[in-house]
Amino acid sequence: MENETSVHTGYIPPYLLRGDPFASKLSKEGDIVAAVYILIIGIMSAVGNGYVIYMTIKRKTKLKPPELMTLNLAIFDFGISVTGKPFFVVSSFAHRWLFGWEGCRFYGWAGFFFGCGSLITMTVVSFDRYLKICHLRYGTWIKRNHAMLSLLFIWLYAAFWATMPLVGWGSYAPEPFGTSCTLNWWLAQASVAGQSFVMSILFFCLILPTGIIVFSYVKIIIKVKTSAKEVSYFDTRNKNNHSLEMKLTKVAMLICAGFLIAWIPYAVVSVVSAFGEHDSVPIPVSVIPTLLAKSAAMYNPIIYQVIDCKNSCSKFCCFKALSKKKQYKTPRFYSISASMKATPANETQIEM
Question: What pTM was estimated for this model as a whole?
Answer without folding.
Answer: 0.80
